[in-house]
Amino acid sequence: MINYLKSEQYRLVRKKTLHITSLVCLLLIVAAATVLYYNQKADPNFPYATTRFFYSNVIGSGGLIIIVSFLYNFSLTGKDAALLKNAVSFGISRNTIFWSKLFMTLSYFLLISVLGIGLMIGLGETLMTSDSQSVKDFLTALVNILPIVFSAFFLIHSLKMLKVGEVYIFILMLLIFVFSGDLLRILFRPFTSLHEVYKYAPDTLLHENLLNFMNHTVQFGYQHWITGVLLSLIALLIGVTKFAKQPID
Amino acid sequence: METIIQTYQLTKTFKDATIIKPLDFSLRKGEICALIGQNGSGKSTLFKMLAGQLRPTAGDIHLFEKTGRDVAQARRRMGFLVETPVFFPDFTASQNLEYFRIQRGVVEKKRVDEVLEIVSLAKEKRKRFKDYSMGMKQRLGIALCLLSSPDCLVLDEPINGLDAEGIREIRNLLVKLNQEKQITIFISSHILTELQLLATRFVFIKNGVIVEDVSKDSLQEKSQKQLQLTVDDTAKTAQLLEQTYVDIQFKVLPNQVIIIHNHVECSGDINRLLLDNGVSVSEFRIEARNLEEYFLELVGGHGHD
């Protein structure tokens, strides 16, 4: 497994598109901070040059983060997946392939995320009006987002490894991470005992998290972790089981 | 002698179609075995099962006398090139092989240059894979097979896309690897004349069943030469032949043509016999069936791969 990880690392560091994507993400953060900063300079009454508003762009962009995670995931499971036959015919197990690719892409994604968050806090605290709680609230809100983003990442990885088309993945991600709250609310309306289920839907939780962050009431949300862990387990279980039987040619 | 590949009742079914019917096959150390069959006969499916790309529906595969979970380990002693070689298009040949060198735990870094030299790609190693010609891609596929110094090569259409010179080079390389390093080779190709020059054993597959498994000597015997005569009097010729050679086997064809299947070594005597007895011989030719003719006769049809 170590050799396979090393080879995937060799590939990953030579993926220009991935580095460009990372750079674009980081530049967008800088651009957003710069725009807010200069607007404040131009108009002292400009209300949005606050750290809370700046950080809320991340807390409220769960969908965007999932799209970015898709791009990172795609780096080792996209067209490169055609090379899997070379690895399999050398006796490398499908399990090793599945977990190594997940580990490498997730590590890179986390690394860039940490850099991005560091950059945001650095820029926010230096250039914008900050309240004493904003960084703590930002980090708490991020901890709540984390399991849901992870579950999305795992689901995308599993589906990519199973050669599911991008359009289908996109539709499924929309259903689960954007519309599931509304769907569950409509679906379970006739059942009194299931009325509250929609509160555990990823999109409901992400929305709640944003509102709590903006209202200075954000707290660690165990519901986020229940939903995230459950979705992650289902995604990985399906991925590993089905990939083990997947023809690779 | 060590058995490199052994299958027991190996079967592959896709939905309702059985592509490989229960198949028993073995390949022993040092052999160069050619797998010959038409399109859809099951050659690639068999190769893919050996490579672990496809899971057999039933049956068992033993590689280097290992089975079950140990087969994966045994595959590390083999080099597989099944169908078209696949590499990272944006990587150079060197980078692609370096990726696999790391993956396969080959310690010696210089091995990448060595295998590129072996397949005559050393001068093109900085060219990106997407800029390679079909023949160069094929060579790189062979280089990958050789990267981990395997004991057995399984090659599905390895000379596909190569020019005449390239084919000759690869043939010489394979023969050299077989003779000098005792590498066992299991190969398929649509160029049957090449297989005839290379292989020591020929396995014919049709609809997922091995219909013939012969050694080179046996194949030569089976595709033995025949005499083709064009004479002015076929009846008299037939009479003379039957009187002189009791066990003679021949066929009388239209246009005064006679094909004699045995006593080819007595061609001089036969010619003299006919001339001495007043039979005019306008054509006297010794013919041998090549592998292609033998193949077509065996598996039928016109197309093959």
Could you characterize the architecture of this molecule?
The complex is a heterodimer of chains A (249) and B (305). Chain A has one domain (2-244). Chain A contains 11 helices and no strands. Chain A has helices at residues 2-13, 16-42, 51-59, 62-77, 84-88, 94-127, 134-161, 166-177, 180-187, 202-214, 222-244. In chain A, α2 runs parallel beside α6 and α3 runs antiparallel to α10. The longest helix of chain A is centred in the middle third of the chain and has 34 residues, at 94-127. With 305 residues, chain B is α/β, with parallel strands linked by helices. Chain B folds into 2 domains: 3-214, Rossmann fold; 224-288, Alpha-Beta Plaits (2-Layer Sandwich). Chain B is built from 11 helices and 13 strands. Chain B has helices at residues 43-51, 70-75, 93-103, 111-118, 134-147, 164-181, 192-198, 216-222, 234-244, 267-276, 291-299, and strands at 3-14, 17-28, 32-37, 58-63, 78-81, 152-156, 184-188, 201-206, 209-215, 225-231, 250-253, 257-260, 281-288. In chain B, the strands form 3 sheets. In chain B, strands 5-6-7-3-8-9 form a 6-stranded mixed sheet, with helices on both faces. Chain B has a 4-stranded antiparallel sheet with strand order 11-12-10-13, covered by helices on one side. The longest helix of chain B has 18 residues, at 164-181. Chain B is elongated and about 75 Å long. The chains are: A mainly alpha (249), B alpha/beta (305). At the A-B interface, α1 and α5 of A face α2 and α3 of B.
